[in-house]
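target protein:
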Amino acid sequence: MTGHDIQLLIITVCSILLLIFFIVSKLRLHPFVALLVVSVGAGLASGLGIDKLAKSIEEGAGSTLGNVGLTVALGVMLGKLLADSGASDRIASVILRGSTRRSLPWLMAAAAFIIGIPMFFEVGLIILLPLIFTVARKLEQHGGTKGSPYILVGVPVIAALATMHGMVPPHPGPLISVSAFHANLGLTMIYGFICAIPSIIIAGPVYAKFLAPRMTVRPDNDLLDQYTAEKEVKEEAQPIPFFTALVAILLPVVMMLIRALAGIFLPEKSMANKVAEFIGEPVIAMLIGLIAAMILLGYARGADTKKLRDSFGSSLKSIAGILLIIAGGGAFGQVLKDSNVGDAIVHLTAGLHFSAIALGWLVAALLSVSTGSATVGIVGSTSLLAPLAADPSINTALLVVAIGSGSLFFNYANHAGFWLVKESFGMSMGETFKTITIVQSIVGLVGLAMALLLNLIVG
């Protein structure tokens, strides 16, 4: 490890500390501005170069908005339609009717577990926000819940979505490792589920029960009203059937799951696989889901089309700030990536003598924390450990799971998901740290412990 590597690591740590200072100190900079200022400072300090620095910021912000922003915008419009039509309220009522306050976090975790199988974290959260807010608001109105019902309901969802995103194929990250290590896909999925379940339980319902009474988090009223608005209906209008509401919210999930299964079972160049890849792309799936919901919940029920259009327009206003902050997080992560912080992490771990599973977890965690991308953590650690996969004594399926769980560890200020959770739930930096950062750290540590335990059992 060189002096330059150490310098890059110090710059990364100082950048994150400076970002926190800008946001929580008396300066009270808007997170979007703070992220851009810190990105410029980190790039200059690391010697990235003025010409490359500007391009890095633009590329990071643009790619993040392209990957996440469009999907978030479509998801918010879908969420607004679900709320206005009464579909979210219908599903929430069914969930509440069949549950107690004690079982509710478990039911929400189970729902997110199923939805999270094919979905990226950010996409799954946007789809489930109307349900989270509607259920939590009903709890809030009925009283009897200490602390924040939004934390009680939201934390299990965050835990389940994050766990499935990083640890279980057919998500792209784990599939990259499966391909590079030539691991058995079926066995990897089995191990992934075995490791994921206790991770979700501890980081989700168990941690939510501990945390919720100690927090008073409540989303911004505008966003809350948008997702939980009760529909003004005529007396003769029929309520949304539960099955129709379920189809409207699950259609994008089904299309993404079809894409994932097609990638596993269909020939890569077949027309069926290409079609499945297209409709299962998050942006396309959300677009098709939104159009289908407009037909099922709007046009087919005689909705006022002008009100429908105006409703979509108003829904986008409330997330403009969120999208900019997510873009700023993407810019910060890209600057760190282009500054070769990842290479410094690789050099740091090169001389460590750990087991392959522990080393894979550590490298993925360090890369993810430093670059703000779980995917970078998975790809980087997979590349580093690929030569070890030839050793028959190494359980490559468990190595894939360990790397995925490491990539989830300590999701913080340079991750887009951190800002999405923060702004969606209206939390401070400290409150967001207590939720998504701690939740994903628990998931990462439990995932590692389970991978090591299974490695001892199966040899």
Notes: Confidence is low (pLDDT under 50) at residues 231-236.
